Structure formats: structure tokens, C-alpha cells
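Next comes one such specimen:
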Amino acid sequence: MLGQEVVRVFSADPQWNVVAWDYENLDITDANKVRALLTAAEPALVINCAAYNNVDGAEAEPERATLLNATAVEHLAKTCTEIEATLIHFSTDYVFEGAKRQGYVEADGPNPQSAYGRSKAAGEISAQHNPRHYLVRLSRLFGKPAVSENAKRSFVDTMLALAQQRSSLEVVDAEFSSPTYAPDLAQAVFDIVRLQSPYGTYHRTNDGACTWYGFAQEIFRLAEKSVTLTPVSPEKFSRPAARPAYSQLLTTKLPPLRPWQAALADYLNEQHS
């Protein structure tokens, strides 16, 4: 979902010669292959859009989540250091415990409460093995579905699909966080590089925050879907992984991106055009 947008944005600038690799081209969990391919390609910039993002699945297979979200990132970071390339790696609001109602800034220390969150927090440390790194945290990614058979469907597309099947839905009215539109995030990353922003950690979500229920309300309002929504507590659904109650990612280093509602409206208009 994110990788295709990053390729699109960077390819539009003639300064960049974009080489896009999927799993079939490079298994980033293989340190030798990472070193061989990156050394041969001699990139100035490496953007890692791969991740294990099955939050509940990670509770059952934490080793697999850590392999892709942390160990593989270390392979990339070490090779990037050797070839003097910049590394951009993405992380998540789930690295935070979720106790700060006012949200989290870039300098706040991670305290993950789930196997997925711990694997992503470990990945943040891995990325820092390369002094030339940008660590970009995001949350609730949505956008054009990826073509990969293992691609995860966004909450927006899940809600729209359910609206075709049901006239009423129960949605968790908890977990305040910020939706992030994939094209906006890709452009934000491009701008970080273009402006030669200082290396380090950045929060790049769309502005504002909502619960899952609030998100669903806006989806159906903008899509003009007649669905009866009932807010429920997280305990209504059995989910193995703990979620942060409050994990809005606040930006203190760069101007905020546009409101998530505006980005959502653009995505829904694009879907119907």
C-alpha cells in the first residue's frame, strides 16, 4: 500500500532512478542477499516499506514478526552504513503504551504493550545502526490496496466492504489515533529527503485523531452509505494483542499534514471516479 505510492512519487522526479524490489527480488531477512544486491546497486537512498503488520498474528508468532520488523532492518542498516546510503524505515504508534491522552511526540520513549509493538520498537533500534537514517512513524495507513496476495486491507476498505453486506455494524469506540493516507505519507517522505531534513525520527500522519468508531462514522458519511453504527468497548471483541488507548502521533519537527478527513474525502472520491 505504501511502497507503490513511494515508487510513484519518487519516479515523478527525474533526479531519481527508482529500483523497486519486492519479496521475489530480495528477501531482506537474508543478510548475505541484502549485502550483495545493495552493494551491486549502489543506491544513495534505501526506503524500506516491508513489514510484518498482523498485530494479533504477532502474538502467536513473535519470532517471525521480529525477523521481518527488526532483524531484517538491521541487515539493511548495516549494509547502508557500509555503502554510505541513507535508510528510510517506517514505524508505528504501537511502539507506545498509550497512556498519554495528549498524544506522543518524536522524543517520547517507546514502551510497547504487544509482540507487534515490541518487534517494531526493536526495528527502530536496528535502523539507528546507520547514522544516515530517517525513522518515520505512522498509524492507521489507508489508500489504494496493494497488489500483493499477502497485502493487508485498510480499515477504510474493510468498512466499505462490510457496508455492502450489512445494514448495521458494531465498531470499537476507543483507541485514539491518527489515520494516515498513503499518498500523503509518500509525499511527506519525499519532502523530508528533498529538503534535506536532519536525520532522525519524524511523525508523519494526517492531522487530527479519532477512535475506530469515529473513523467509521466519517467513512460512511463521506461515502454516503446508510449504515447503522453502534459504538462498543474493546472488550466486545476478543483480540490477542493489546492496543494503545491513546497514540496520536504529534509532529514537533515539521508542519502537520492536512487533516485526515480531507485525505479520506480525496481517497473516496478517487474510488468513485
Summary: The chain has a mean pLDDT of 96. The first strand starts at residue 45 and ends at 48.
